[in-house]
Amino acid sequence: MEISARNGIKGTVESVKLGAVMASIKIKVEDPALITAAITKESVEDLEIAVGDEVKAIIKSTEVMVAK
Amino acid sequence: MEISARNGIKGTVESVKLGAVMASIKIKVEDPALITAAITKESVEDLEIAVGDEVKAIIKSTEVMVAK
Amino acid sequence: MEISARNGIKGTVESVKLGAVMASIKIKVEDPALITAAITKESVEDLEIAVGDEVKAIIKSTEVMVAK
Amino acid sequence: MEISARNGIKGTVESVKLGAVMASIKIKVEDPALITAAITKESVEDLEIAVGDEVKAIIKSTEVMVAK
Amino acid sequence: MEISARNGIKGTVESVKLGAVMASIKIKVEDPALITAAITKESVEDLEIAVGDEVKAIIKSTEVMVAK
Amino acid sequence: MEISARNGIKGTVESVKLGAVMASIKIKVEDPALITAAITKESVEDLEIAVGDEVKAIIKSTEVMVAK
Questions:
Q1: What ipTM was predicted for this assembly?
Q2: Does E18 contact chain F (CB < 8 Å)?
Q3: Do the domain assignments include residue E30?
Q4: Which of A2, A5, A60 sits opposite D68 (nearest CB)?
């Protein structure tokens, strides 16, 4: 399956921090840039996301703002 | 002012496509990656976003998904 | 690849309406329910989304509100 | 009042999980489908959302992606 | 029905601009502040949103950023 | 830098509630209105957001719904 989200950025999981409901994932996309994803803890567990995993940060284009 | 959005990715505007209400901006972030932002046409006009501009793609972390 | 978005609802594309930048897709998920997705026109073209296609509506859980 | 959000899916609350700030609500929409909503804990308390409640999952169409 | 979205700001519709798929609504919330909503054209037609209407801008708290 | 987000509402931080990953910020925008922002705890710490701070609630227009 392919998703309509326009943005998929490859990287490596650098940290996983779990709360009770939400989780924060840091994805290293290119030294030294980091992308932060706030997703549910459940997703982290279902996908078994762990430090060192090769993942993609997926972002729908309507969620991207532009600063100039 | 600094914004709470965790993700700011520097790049250069590669294309600006205007609709009646919305606009699609392609931002080259590192060859050959592109980030697509769907923002209002009004924002494009107010910030005078044009091809070649150095901009930042800003993304709130709750909008980032992870695929593995 | 599997995505962290918690919600994937199978259905059939009932209509595709293209604007200049955005597109509106109606997905029949169970008679007579319809889910509306506002995605970029570019996604529609890249995925070649057409009436009758079997697709999934994907929704990040932080985007779902609850009314009671 | 009627809301502009295009998508309202009726279902029954199957579980409510509270964190310190956020909460995760599982809504059974049709056996065996479940929709997950990540909303603030405060909303859960204000609307007194509990297992068995008949609710609607409300989703703005710009938040819906399409996978094919 | 009550919605889990934490933010509802009363105001008056000042302008409605229709595109093919999306629409931009300006809501005057307190002189001279304006809130811009980018919603589907279909919503504008279904709710018959017109200049002078008393409406509410509804915003889920996970969509609000803070700048300081 | 200027951001494409159309909505910036000035106010004062009235409360900051921290969870493990997320945080809820109440911003007083005009007596007695409050805007709730659910942002990462990390943002709160990086921007040192505290009660009494003058801040702006920033909202992308595609995240604003209209109720009538």
A1: 0.92
A2: no
A3: yes
A4: A2
